[in-house]
């Protein structure tokens, strides 16, 4: 079973499974294919996280291929003369990109846990780039929305707007010849092509010409890392997710631990009491995020304390049932006392019982908008996920602290939350989502909908969502939830705002040994398909 936000990529994964490949083979082929067919988030010039469960050993592991700050990056590189964060520089410039990790991460996954060659995994992406594919209405719309950022890049304009500044029409064929050449280089020479060979040279030359920071040394020294996932237990289910440098797994488990103290099913899905408790829980978790999370290779992250049941109980005791606690009265907790929006997710489960839950990103749709000349490779703008000025919110309104300040070679904090849930060591659920700061809360609600509210995966996916991230002190609600609830929640003191769709989860569950998949209609174009 394969679920992704883009149909052609789902079919690529499915065809690998049908030919006997495993979930890792299918995922790597999809990761490369999405760079062609879903360029707003699929990428070679970005980074991400892959959670893998191996049927043979029962092991679950996390591949961290997050981007890194270039070695010449400095703490205050985005602070202007007035002492403020220069958003344009952080989000839309040659300085916005971290050293990409995707090619290293996908190659490492395949080499360690796959069964097919890199050449074979890259073949569908090369074909799609060379021969082209039909442009969807969604792709055209997303290109129009990102045009302003791409206008600064001749390469981006030549690829996506070559028809007198117009993106291809729906149904037109989009060919990406330079990207095909880059993919072929990787197919022929391995990931070294990207990190030390022809592509590395092109990136370094472009950076030098434009005054950017990424050098060949940054690329040759980049390594994807295999980490131990963060794990917890929620009402008897084992939950695995991404450890730091993502905040996703830590805060997902922290929120589940807090919520385990309440009879959520009894409250009823999206009842006033349920949404109130959910929102108060989210605030507590995001307040902790602002202080305690960062790259674990650079500072100590108190992961075990943050995900302890005891700490969750203490936090639950701070929740007032009757009234919301304004965010200004909630600071980051002290767990030690007891001891990014555009991203995409896909989920694959194969016939052997291997599971992959992968989220990767360029950060904004089409990243910084800049493509490396001659490569067709769009660059991320992930440097904005650092706290450019601790205490000042980033593009997602997220507050960050010292632990997420910029430093050479450091990975910026993420919210990406690929998840695998097991029950009695058997596969139960895998999910993940795009959505910047809203990723963690989207994934949380899918898990609650399935485990507490006993929904099937389609309903669990489509049910209205809410989101609170501590600051701004706003309870965001999708229109459907807001319609019935906002008045009652306002009475409890919540500042409710009806918002655009929250997340786009791509999930698979297993019920009675059968797999069920659900893509999220919040973003059209996805596909769940079994074989
Ligand atoms: N760029 C969004 C995130 O990593 O959270």
Which key phrases capture this entry?
531 residues; alpha+beta; 6-stranded antiparallel β-sheet; globular; binds glycine
Structure description:
The chain is built from 19 helices and 20 strands. By secondary structure, it is an alpha+beta fold. The chain has a domain at 230-341 and 416-529: Gamma-glutamyltranspeptidase, small (S) subunit (Glutamine Phosphoribosylpyrophosphate, subunit 1, domain 1, 4-Layer Sandwich), CATH 3.60.20. It has a seven-stranded antiparallel sheet, covered by helices on one side. A six-stranded antiparallel sheet has the order 7-8-13-14-18-19. β16, α19 (479-491) and β17 form a beta-alpha-beta unit. It starts with a strand and ends with a strand. The model has no long low-confidence stretch (mean pLDDT 96). The structure holds glycine.
Bound small molecules, by name, code or SMILES, are: glycine
Overall SS class:
alpha+beta
Strand count = 20
Q: Under the CATH scheme, which architecture of the domain at 230-341 and 416-529 would be assigned? A: 4-Layer Sandwich
Biggest sheet: strand arrangement: 6-3-2-10-9-1-20
CATH superfamily of the domain at 230-341 and 416-529: Gamma-glutamyltranspeptidase, small (S) subunit
Question: Roughly what fraction of the amino acids lie in strands?
Answer: 15-25%
Q: What count of helical segments does DSSP give? A: 19
Please state the average pLDDT score.
96
CATH class of the domain at 230-341 and 416-529: Alpha Beta
Instruction: Report the radius of gyration as a whole number of Å.
Output: 22 Å
Question: What is the fold named in CATH at topology level of the domain at 230-341 and 416-529?
Answer: Glutamine Phosphoribosylpyrophosphate, subunit 1, domain 1
Helix content: 25-40%
Q: What can be said about the biggest beta sheet?
A: 7 strands, antiparallel
Coarse shape: globular
| End-to-end gap | 6 Å
Q: Unreliable segments (pLDDT under 50, ≥5 consecutive)?
A: none
